[in-house]
């Protein structure tokens, strides 16, 4: 007979990290910096494309994808300024980014905006 395992409980709030609660996006990086702001933009965009309500594994992949996207954007800026450009490293990172995005799903997903029965009835009562 197969054994069933209970999912582990999340840690109590006093043992949560600032990263785990969402208070910090990038550990050790000033949240006002250009990189941190761009990171948030990319994460928010991908999260929205995926319909929100992501699993922890998906959130981890989104964070890695955002980091790689920023790296690529920085290299593209350097190329535009005429600085040295390592095409091999760029191609490797761009391909890794493509694979991450492919794992997450490249297409947009519709977010379910159908109200629950309680919400529908409350809206009708308010009219």
Can you describe this structure?
- There is one protein chain.
- The protein contains 5 helices and no strands.
- By secondary structure, the chain is mainly α.
- The chain has a domain at 28-106.
- The longest helix is centred in the middle third of the chain and has 25 residues, at 56-80.
β-strand amount: under 5%
What is the general shape?
A: extended
Number of strands: 0
Distance separating the two termini? 55 Å
Per DSSP, the total helix count is 5
List SSEs in N-to-C order.
Answer: HHHHH
Please provide a brief summary of the model.
The protein is an all-alpha fold.
What are its keywords?
extended, 127 residues, 57% helix, mainly alpha
List the helices and strands and how they pair.
Layout: H1 18-21, H2 34-49, H3 56-80, H4 87-104, H5 117-126
């Amino acid at each position: 007979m197969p054994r069933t395992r209970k999912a582990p409980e999340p840690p109590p709030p006093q043992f949560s990290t600032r990263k785990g609660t969402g208070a910090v996006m990038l550990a050790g990086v000033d949240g006002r910096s250009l990189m941190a702001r761009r990171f948030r933009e990319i994460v928010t965009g991908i999260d929205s494309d995926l319909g929100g309500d992501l699993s922890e594994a998906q959130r981890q992949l989104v964070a890695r994808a955002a980091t790689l996207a920023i790296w690529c954007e920085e290299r593209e800026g350097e190329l535009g300024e005429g600085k040295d450009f390592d095409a091999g490293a760029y191609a490797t990172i761009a391909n890794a980014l493509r694979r991450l995005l492919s794992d997450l799903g490249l297409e947009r997903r519709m977010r379910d905006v159908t109200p629950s029965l309680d919400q529908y009835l409350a809206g009708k009562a308010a009219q």
